[in-house]
Protein 1
Amino acid sequence: MKETREIKLLDRVFDAWGNTGLLDRHLVGLLSSRRVPGMPVLDAANRCKDLAGPDQAVVSGFHSPVESMCLDIMALHGTAMIAILAARLIPDTLPE
């Protein structure tokens, strides 16, 4: 379901578009440093598919290598995800 919606967080207003119903779910944050040694990367790969249940969604920028890897794995498992775009990545117009 494509829609737009304003959300208020910490006295600031943000625009959301896409399936904004995901914002009403329990949200789980995914953050990672850009530089991570090998073992934590393997642990993240093994655990990321279990991050979100049916009433949850994972929130991340999906910018770091570990976040990007988790994005691919979670997409294969049908995990609901919310991508936070950096201001410079937000398009001037919304996609159709």
Protein 2
Amino acid sequence: MSIERFESLVVDGRELTRDRDYTASAGSVAIALLPDYLGTLSAGQHTMTVRFSDADEVRTVFSVEREKPVVPQHNPSTGLAGHIWLYAGILVAAAAAAAVFMVMRRKKNGE
């Protein structure tokens, strides 16, 4: 079986059109179904028959799988993002209060 004897390609009983639905090239016979044609096939198994001029046929079965849609993940709001400046302010006030407390304590102890 060679490209010189290649005659036609049939998928699920329907003869396809070369260079529109598929390409065929040498290397024994290399068949490539084109993306536009593949998009017309339903998900599941399909039968491909390659016909040659010397009456030989080669049959195979292939599967088409559809991509599963990507579902965007939603990160739930914890409510913390909107109050970041409030928490930063509280932290600064607490640090300042601790510094004042330490200064007053040293003065009281006479240091």
